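Hi,

I'm pasting everything inline rather than attaching a file, because the server keeps stripping attachments. The sequence lines come first, and each chain or strand is labelled.
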Amino acid sequence: MTPVRDTTAGRRIVVCVGSGGVGKTTVAAAIALDRALAGGRVLVCTIDPARRLANALGLTSLGNVESRVPDHKFAEAGLRAKGELHAMMLDVKRTWDDLVARHAPDPARRERILKNRLYQQMSSALAGSQEYMAMEKLYELATDRDYDLIVLDTPPTAHALDFLDAPDRILDFLGNDAARVLLAPAIGAGKLGLRLAQLGGGYVAKTLARFTGQAALSDLGDFLQGFQGMYEGFKDRAGAVRALLSRPEVGFVLVTSPSPISIDEAMAFHERLHAESMPVAGLVANRVTPDLWPGAAPLPSPEDLASPLGERGGNDRGFARRLAETLAEHQMLAAAERRALERLFEAVSAPYAVVPRLESDVHDLRGLARLAERL
Amino acid sequence: MVTGKGGVGKSTVSAALAVLAARAGKRVLVCEVNARERIAPLLGAPPAGAQIREARPGLFTLNVTPPDAMREYGIMVLKFRTIYDAVFENRLVRHFLRVIPSLAELVMLGKILFEAKSEERGRPRWDVVIVDAPATGHAVQLLRVPSALLDTVPAGPLRGDAEWMQALLLDPARTALAIVTLPEEMPVNEAIDLDAQVRSELGVPRAALFVNAMPEARFTHEEEARLESLAGEPPPLGPAAAAARLQALRAEQAQRYLARARAALDLPTTVLPLLPVAEWGAAAVERIADAIAAAPPEPAP
Ligand SMILES: Nc1ncnc2c1ncn2[C@@H]1O[C@H](COP(=O)(O)OP(=O)(O)OP(=O)(O)O)[C@@H](O)[C@H]1O
Ligand SMILES: Nc1ncnc2c1ncn2[C@@H]1O[C@H](COP(=O)(O)OP(=O)(O)OP(=O)(O)O)[C@@H](O)[C@H]1O
Ligand SMILES: [Mg+2]
Ligand SMILES: [Mg+2]
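And the predicted assembly:
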């Protein structure tokens, strides 16, 4: 059975979400590879991939460059792609700059924004910036290119829901009503004090400036003024991204580890997608400890293992005891994970795949193809 | 200051360090930074909310959040609560403050460092303050705030605060940064990048590396070679050998990443065991604390 593979098969956009480190990037690449092997023309947009995975996909630098994984890479992995696999790494700063360039009314304004210190900080470091730009890039790719499938990886947020919330937070910042009342329209940074003074008497202005420093207020005034008139464009665009994400050709894949914390996040995310009518393609429980002792029979004791071991090369230094202990430990974890995952699969009615923890981490096409088999 | 990639065990290590300090009779405060509260539960205490609470004798926890820190800081700067309420409880102003980048970080760091230097009856209020800092990127943003302010803000109360905060952060007699990682590719890479950034940019004194969740080297190479074929045997031997083989492979992979972390980071290193437990809680934290106590950090190479 390959439930997640089946439910993603008809979609044109797949978005992999989940809490930090659960395997979003890996699963995104595996889904993309799988469709490319089957004949699709596919793009995977990764975010901070592990270096060796980036190498395996032939990605050497940032810059939003889409590059096709060459045939010889497939051949080296013993694979043959009927279709094409393209990959890129999201460049957050570049995506911001492109966005500004697209919306700026003239080159002077563009330069003014690009040079603003607050803008530079925001475009590289502000929390949520990555999430916002991932959505922005997805929209551009989905509208300008003709891939059969685009798979979007999402940033390593502490909380999966940040992916949906962060863009709004940033838009809120750009279109901040309060700031607008305080600073806009049409006042220069120099007249800031004056404008502030109009709000509830002079002491408010003085207190605020004391708190943040006049420089911070001026920077912000300049920044918001730079964006003056562009906010609507940004907002329309964000609305369009939202609309895109609600279309049935899109599918969210919720990736989780078997740990209770990550499962809680996946459930919260699912609820949210449901509330916003965004389509869920499936769940992937990743890096799960495989059940090696199915059934109800009691686990073997060291003595149970000692005699077959004796016949096959000996039982030195308590080898049998260590084997018995290792299996017991393994099964204890497998059982705990199974209980935790049952809670998830009961609460969320969506197709799901359970992907075992593979023998080594997944950093090449062969490993990705193996993982895809389990989707 | 305890940081590292998301999910590597920062809260666990913070809680364990706090347990050790409390065991040694110290008065300890553990601060989380705008987190889903984990520390109090890891110490077997109910969540404490945004107040300082005693989780066990001598061991206190606090979850620092922007609104609370902002309020405290605001009142501290402005001296009068009435002014704060009049100005900052204004809806427009609140909204406005929320969007000034770094202001949240500033007030949270300020709150923490203020606790660190506060005194009661002429003695420091806390012997140790442990900060369960956010994951790498956000931790850097947090620790960068004072120096960023010093670069940009002219004289004023904000600058004065940035000055003492920076002095405290950079003082090796008072501040130490610990990096936590797992013996896996991404966490180790992130630890190495973070360490470089701390050295070149932040200047916070680097003190320790914790490599967490290290699987035990349980089988010899010879045994491992046997496991390969034994895994094909019928039960009970086959499944036991299969489990052992997975354990051995995982331990081997972890050894490689541990070696990589050691080679790249000249920090005293403490290796903490992977604990096979179904539920992660106070008992596990005690065991991690024991492991830290039993294994004084190996000096840097
Ligand atoms: N099924 C699996 N078996 C073994 N290792 C895996 C498996 N899935 C992922 N990994 C490994 O786990 C690590 C983390 O995976 P990945 O980078 O895809 O997670 P992520 O969710 O994208 O993380 P981040 O939140 O940091 O972006 C990688 O080293 C990857 O090779
Ligand atoms: N030594 C260990 N052995 C086994 N499991 C561990 C170990 N340390 C941590 N874990 C597991 O990892 C989980 C995350 O640990 P912890 O909450 O300390 O990480 P964190 O870095 O604080 O995470 P976050 O970035 O989400 O704050 C724990 O709930 C536990 O399941
Ligand atoms: Mg990733
Ligand atoms: Mg934590």
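Residues 237-264 of chain B form the longest helix (28 residues).

If the labels don't parse on your end, tell me and I'll reformat.
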